[in-house]
Amino acid sequence: MSTPNVAPFSSIRLDKYSPNPIYLQIAEGIGELLKSGVLPAGYVLPPERALCEQFGISRMTLRQAMGLLDREGLIESRRGRGTVVTPARLRKQEQELKSFSEEIRDRGGRPESRLISLELTVPGESVRDFFELRDQQKVYELLRLRLKDGDPLALELVRIPERLCPGLERFDIAKNSLYQILEESYGLRLENCIEEISAEAPTSKLRKLLALPRNAAVLVVNRKTFAEDGRAVELTRSTYRGDQYSAVVRSVRKKKPILRISTSS
Amino acid sequence: MSTPNVAPFSSIRLDKYSPNPIYLQIAEGIGELLKSGVLPAGYVLPPERALCEQFGISRMTLRQAMGLLDREGLIESRRGRGTVVTPARLRKQEQELKSFSEEIRDRGGRPESRLISLELTVPGESVRDFFELRDQQKVYELLRLRLKDGDPLALELVRIPERLCPGLERFDIAKNSLYQILEESYGLRLENCIEEISAEAPTSKLRKLLALPRNAAVLVVNRKTFAEDGRAVELTRSTYRGDQYSAVVRSVRKKKPILRISTSS
DNA sequence: CTAGAACAAATGTCTATACAACTTGCAGCA
DNA sequence: TGCTGCAAGTTGTATAGACATTTGTTCTAG
User: Is A215 left (phi over 0), alpha (psi -120 to 50) or beta?
Assistant: First the structure.
């Protein structure tokens, strides 16, 4: 149990003329102290009123900042007792939508991509329904081999409606991230996806492409991606080498009520 | 685009003497209207000041309620414009930690369990490190066959330190949910888990147990479960029939800043 | 010595208000 | 006609204070 001490907070400088509101500056400042470990897990924060005085702000404003930190699971407050720093492993961490390249890089690998084919075709019924297309509206079908550190890791079949990105074939898809092209050149801001992960035995064709050892399985990820406005953007089937790749998922136990105050930009 | 209309909100009754605070009552009331579809996606909520007057509360209190709804992705506010109801598919939905039984039931199946063995053993090094055990401290090893609608679906190996649940063998584990026993009889409140999902080719023993067809793969889920206080509680390896089961994951694109106010109980 | 009362300290809830920043539509002017 | 600028409406940010509720401690009465 550490003693509340105002000293570490003096490093936080408020800029009254910043475009960022005060409560955000406070939250970011304290958040830094928490994430960097300057304030260790179990540390008892000074009472709200002391911090208000320290920063020269009103209590509601401070509580707005504390709400953000609480929402991230960085601190935990209890009425009558005080506010303590949460141990790192209890902090929240949302499942994050990443492109193949982003994910491989996060895992410390070097991603690479080889375009096998790019076609513009009339989709089957299920794909057409998913994208809510009319008859004869086409979709791009992108077949790519994905590599990590030079070795084949996955085969990826991407489907995107032509309507959302006309002229996609003019981009150098092997060089640039597909997500980057969609976001920057077509203004499609991806927001969330749903993935269905299953296991299959590989076909012989796939065995060759991925250089699979005998008796290996593949991990199949079917991803549906949606834009901020809710439109379906992408339907992708990725087939990973089962001996080289695994998906990581983090879940939380459902609570009865809702939680705490924070603020939106 | 619908016209703001105060009428639907008159169904919300506030109880000044309820143990639940006003802002929670408001959030739950409006949340009901949103989730039930009484207020459809795209509906423009009355301005905050109108709602304040309607409910007879101050604006800050109303905004506390709105913050909760925003945090759940049920509504979206824009400065200068107003607040609209979010379409269902854009609403947030946290990845939820479920037991096998809970998950199968949610998918509309009938879960069943057959205990194959229950041993109390001294664990190997990696397991001991994970649970932070001293030499000679033991763990329960539970091997169960899991069935859905009478058919084998998965083989599950659960490891739990004896220290956390001494006398576990006295419970009828086939009948009762293990999670329920841990929570209700040992006070272990599970909070989150991390799962690593991979694909493998089954061993011949596994092929028999799960009645796997020729040339089928298995989906392997390694789950680490933690309690509210951060202690490691459970280490489980589940092996599912690849042709019968798939995992579903929902991810969101990372935003730059943080979001909005809400409150903790 | 203990049980209970009183108190102090901390967070939780709520009010009433003021001003800032953004959006939209409209009036008025060139 | 077309553009500018303004006014009204809406959400975002911030203040200062009051009281409620919970927890832990201290003091007192028995």
Answer: left
